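Changelog note: in this version the structure field was regenerated for every chain. One regenerated record is shown below for reference.
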Amino acid sequence: MKQPEPRKTSKPADLIIYLIIGILFLWLLFTLKPDLLRTLTGQNQLADIPASTAKTALQQLEIRPRTERAPEYQRNEFGESWADVDGNGCDTRNDILGRDLIEKQYRRGSNCVVKQGLLEDPYTGEKVAFIRGPQTSEIVQIDHVVALGDAWRSGAYKWDLAKREAFANDPENLLAVVGYVNEDKGRSRADQWLPPQEEYHCAYVARQIKVKAKWQLSIISSEKETFVNVLANCPATG
């Protein structure tokens, strides 16, 4: 009768290698986790939409008549201000701050709460320091590129709460921007407001078009006219 082969035992050198690998993994997990995960999941940077892609998507958008009326807009129709809809343990505001700010520092013991950083504001071109605090946090705000009020009028009033909350936390529709500009924009459509920095108009309208196409939101004729006019002066690839 054939005897079973004796079980191989790990050599001490192998155990040391495994231990080093384990320690390195834990160091990466707890020290670099926020930025590492954003890189691995493709959330480290929000790429601009090519104008050619936006022009194609624009043809898909429904033009609604100005006479169409939606119920009165209320912010709470889109759920709580910033939720953790992707279940990563971090609310959307901190996700976007972590994605859009540079030179970031996180709160000690936290893997998501941004304590401070530097914003290179796409809407104005300004460089703005972000410091978390009751008097300073709102200097940097998170803008819905397609404003929630605009989305509501464009068809979101027909959605259920879960879909509206998902829209409100969609990272493709969110940008960290300087607070006063976000407040100036408010609920405006693209035909009512464009970023002060003219060089960003192409990226701004291209993202509005992509988001509206993605969520099947409508536009009005003056909005489409603005989109067409801006895109006419944009390079096809940017």
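Spot check on this record: The two ends are 74 Å apart (CA to CA). The longest strand covers residues 114-120.
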